[in-house]
Amino acid sequence: MENLKMQYRPEIDGLRAIAVLPVIVFHAGISAFSGGFVGVDVFFVISGYLITSIIISEKQAGTFTLVNFYERRARRILPALFVVMAACLPFAWMWMFPEEMKDFSRSLMGVSAFVSNILFWRESGYFVTAAELKPLLHTWSLSVEEQYYLLFPLFLIYTYRLGRRWVVGTLLVVFLISLAGAQWGSAHKTIANFYSLPTRAWELLIGSFIALVPNSSHACAKNAGPNRLSLNQYGSLIGLLLISFSIFYFNRDTPHPSIYTLIPTVGAGCVIMFATPVTLVGRLLSSRILVFVGSISYATYLWHQPLFAFARYRTINEPSTLVFLGLTLTAMVLATLSLRFLELPFRNLKFISRKGIFGVALTGTLCFFILGALWYSKSGLPGRLPANLSTKFFPEKTNESTACNLAPVESAKTLHYCYFGDINASRTVALYGDSHAQTLFSELDSAFKTHAIRGLRVYMTNCEPIPQILVANNSDISNYLQQKECLITYSSLLDYLKQNASAIIIGLRWTMRMYPIEGSVDELAFNNGEGGREHIEPRKYTTLDLNGIPSLAGAGKKDAIDMLLRTMNELNKPVFVIHPIPEVGWDIPKYNFVSYLNDKSTPVSISTSHERFKNRNSFINDVLNNAQNYQNLIHIKPERHLCDSLMKGRCVAQWNDTPLYYDDDHLSNAGARMIIQDIISNLVK
To answer: Which residue intervals of the chain bear CATH 3.40.50?
Structure first.
């Protein structure tokens, strides 16, 4: 229906192909297309251009109405979307864990209400590898577009009568505010920045500006003079090169969206503005194969993410490139069938009336929303899984969140504490650190009650547990202010521990916080080399030099650890320093579940390479082992129990049918029990 109102441009379909294919390849994990995610930005520009062109042409003809506009949107978007959502349901039922099913159920509700971008912003970042397991993650871009379509036509209705200059001027102000917001958000609110309409609107507006500003490159293409032909030729070529540069040279570390995103979006705008049937780029994009891929790009985009996600659910290790290639072809086949038997019929007024399409929209929306709410209210339907394997699927783990009611320290509001164990005991042992310390909580709670010890959980809010190490920020001043605040909080922590604790336990995920150190810690997430790859939000850790300049070097991080150990040692109390807990790479309950799906059985033991552990943690182990001159430090080494003991040359993650981890790096209670025996034996001797 859209093309009835404006001249068909095959090069736009070709540009859609250029947009969708890199996105798919990026989601397949092919590193050569490290910036393939910019395909979505190209889609935004195309969408802004087409929608604005339609509205303007209909406004000029006096035929525009909101009802017609939203009817076209419903015909274009909803039939294929509903079919893809429905196709996900049986696979989610069969292959998802309850927590994963709860997340999926939320996404059903979010997609139905076109607010999935807000939902995924609340859940996790786009570039975290766990996002690869969200079948409907890609619908965030549809939500952004639909939110734009909700506001933009209303704006044009009430302002178009004032003239194009006024409209363009107002939108230019919105464009600049949105772009500035994206630039700020890329440094301070990266996840919200990625998913939000306010920081994405400027991309759609690039396309809208092209439609609003008179452009003679197409209307006069046949009769254009040599100067205009040269402008079209070079302008479209530059645009395609800008898109290509972004696809191959951007990566997960590129601030996005930000001012950098002007490169692919301006590139897309140049192609739209300057490509004509007589230009090189116009002829390339108008080729049959690209036009065909572009014509099925929407449905291909819809299908590829669920196919990729469920393939990852169904296998223990990452699927191969060949599998992803087969799934991509499958997505294109399904998209072709969708175009032929679903999308085109639903765009035909003779096939379904206005009343009928709005009925489909309302019915589908309500059904998916209600189903999502029901499944979510049932906690992801754990009854689907075999009860006899519940201990392998749901190993006992720490209960700190319910047993420990953290409250702010009166003298330092950014420092929180709670008591556990035998709260009436006179002897107090503090537990300090991150989630790796937290995994010990339940077993320490039991042991402390047995041995008349009061536990004291202490926690610094909004600060890394090593106070001179912080998550790298794009703003030097933000880094400086954050470290200054955290050092003040850490000083309060030392004072609090000196007054209230007789011993201290420090548990951290040390090596992750060393990333990156060239040649020593080259990966943030753990890869066990046997197919197990951890899911973790991309980030880097830094220290600040004497001038406040961020540094990723190992020397500064070594000094930061030494400062932590030295200041703790100076409290003149026993300080138990827990060395690195072996990471696994595989999510152990999920490993058991996939094994059950494949073979109707689960492994007795699961292990990873001890050598891999030693290589991964060599830097931090050297630092900790060289801190022997601090007389109050007592070194606790989980490696002694978990590696090269139960299995030669291996670090065990499941032993004798008992999971020692509840995910890919956190100890279950059974695993924690093995570690704390060394602590307890020192405390009670």
So the answer is: 404-583+610-642
